[in-house]
Amino acid sequence: MPATTMDQLVSLCKRRGFIFQNADIYGGLQGVYDFGPLGVELKNNLKAAWWRSMVYERDDVEGLDAAILTHRKVLHYSGHEATFSDPLTDCKRCKQRFRADHIKDGKCPECGSTDLTEPRMFNMMFKTAVGPIEGGDNFAYLRPETAQAIFTQFKNVVDATARKAPFGIAQIGKSFRNEITPRNFIFRVREFEQMELEFFVKPGTDMEWLETWKADRIDWWIDQGLDKEKLHVHKIAKEDLAHYSKATYDLEYQFPHGLEELEGIADRTDYDLGNHTRYQDELEITAHVHENKEAEGKLALFDDEAKKWYVPWVIEPSAGVERGVLAVLTEAYAEETLPNGETRTLLKLKKHLAPVKVAVIPLKRNNAEIVKLAANIKAALMKTGVGRIMLENSGNIGKAYRRHDEIGTPICITIDFESIEKQPASVTIRNRDTMAQQRVAVSDLPAYITDFFR
User: Fold this and answer.
1) Is the pLDDT of residue 368 over 80?
2) Three-class SS of residue 368?
C-alpha cells in the first residue's frame, strides 16, 4: 500500500470531525487547531493511555496539573528568557518570514529569492498582562513547556508524598510557543499539549535511567499501534544539545512529511532544580551535593545512607499530544480494494484508542421496535465502561459501516428483523478489520464487548 499522505489525513480529519482549523470562518488562525467530536475522543484516549502507563501502572510516579500562567522569574532562572529563541529571517521579495535554519542554499522556500535579511533571534514565548495595568513588570508568560511547574512544585510534592529517588512527577497540559513558521498540519503548532514526565534519580545513575526510559518509550509507542520499523532513535550531537541537557535521544517517526521527532528523552542533569534553588532568597545552595541541614525541605532530597542532602538529576521523556495523534492516524490510515472493486477507507486504530468503541445500528430507522431494542442495547453496553457507545440511526446500513470503518470503530452491532422476531433475541456483530460477521445473543453482548476490549 502506498504511504499515507498529509492530504489524505487532512481531508479525513475535516470530513469526519477529527480536527478543524481554528476560527475557520474568519480565515483561520495559523498554527492553531480545534479537535472535533471524534478528535477529542482520540486525543483523550491517547492521553489516558499515557497516564495509565505512567501513573497507574507504576508505583514510583505521582501526577500534577499545574497552571498555564507562569511567573516570569521561573522562566528567567530556568534559562528560557535567554535561550528559548530561534533565528529569524525575512524574504524581502515575498515578505514571508522563516526560521533561518530552515533556509536551504540561501533561497526563500516560498519564492526562491536570495534577497533575505540577516538572521536575528526571536523569542518564542507568549507574554500576557497580569492585573488591570499593562506594561512594566505586570506580565506573565504562557508556559512554553510543562516541565518548569513540576520543578517549582518539587518541594510540595515531596513533602506531601514523602517520595525518595528514584521517582517521577507526570503532567499532561497545554504549552504555547510563538512558532515562526507553523507547518505540517498539527505537527508544529503554536498551542499544543505535552505528556511530560520528570523522573528524579541519584547523581551517577542518570545514564542508566536514560537508557531504561528510551526503551520503555519505544515499547509504549509500539503498543499504541506504531510500526517499529518506522521508529528511529536519534542521539543528539553534543554541540546541538539544549542548554540544560547532558544527553538527549529523539524518538523519531516516519510522518507523511518525513522522519521527525515524536518524543524526546533528555538527561536534564540537576540544571533546573539547581537553578531554582540557587536563586531563592531564603536559601542559597549549590546545584550539587548538600550537607547543610537547612537544605531540608528545599529542592533537595536527603540520602539516608550517605547522610547528605543532594539535588537529584532528572530524566525527562516528553511527547507532544498532537504529534502523537498525527502519528497514530498516519499508522492507522488504510485504503483497501473490495471484491466488488470499491475502495474502503478505514482507520485500523488500536481498540483502546478508537473514538467510538461500538456502533449500535438499527437496520430500519423508522421501525419503533428495532430502534427501541437498539437503544436498550446501547444503555446496557454503556455499563461495561469500555468507552463511547454510539447509536447510529442513519437508516442505511452500508453507509453506516463505511462511516465507522473510516473513523476506526472496531465493532458494529446491527439490530435487524430477526432480532425482534426470534427468541432468544440476537444481533449481528461486524468486525472492522476483517468485516467478518457473527450472530450473538443480546443477553451475551455485555460479556462479549467487555472481553473484546479487555
Assistant:
1) yes
2) helix
Q: Tell me if 334 sits within 8 A of 345, measured CB to CB.
A: yes
* pLDDT of 20 over the 80 cut: yes
Give the model confidence (pLDDT) of 38-93 as tens digits.
999 999 999 999 999 999 999 999 999 999 999 989 998 888 887 776 777 889 88
Whether 199 contacts 209, CB under 8 Å = yes
pLDDT score of 286 more than 50: no
- Cβ neighbors of 420 (< 8 A, separation 6 or more) are 369, 370, 373
Q: How far apart are CA 321 and CA 327, in angstroms?
A: 10
Degrees, nearest 5: CA angle 14-20-23: 140
Q: Is 184 helix (H, G, I), strand (E, B) or coil?
A: coil
Residue 1 has pLDDT above 70, yes or no: no
In the structure grid, which three cell numbers stand for residue 154, read together? Answer: 518539587
Helices (H), 260-396: 271-278, 321-332, 368-382
Tell me the residue type at 390: M
- The Cβ of residue 57 has, within 10 Å, a number of other Cβ atoms equal to 9
Cell triple for 147: 516541565
342 within 8 A of 235, measured Cβ to Cβ: no
Pairing of strands 61-64, 333-337: unpaired
On whether the CB atoms of residues 355 and 407 are closer than 8 A, the answer is yes
Q: Using an 8 Å Cβ cutoff, are 185 and 6 in contact? A: yes
SS3 149: helix
CB atoms within 10 A of CB 448: 17
Distance CA 69, CA 217 (A): 29
Nearest to 334 by CA among 344, 324, 323, 342: 344
pLDDT of residue 199: 98
The number of residues in the chain equals 454
Pair 174, 191: CB distance under 8 Å: yes
The sign of the dihedral angle between the CA atoms of 123, 125, 126, 129 is: negative
> Domains in the chain and their CATH numbers?
6-68+143-270+312-328 (3.30.930.10), 356-452 (3.40.50.800)
Contacts of 200 (CB under 8 A, 6+ apart): 154, 165, 166, 167, 168, 169, 301, 312, 313, 314
Residue 315: strand pairing partners:
199, 267
| pLDDT band, residue 122 (cuts 50/70/90) | confident
Question: Closest by alpha carbon to 176, among 194, 196, 195, 198?
Answer: 194
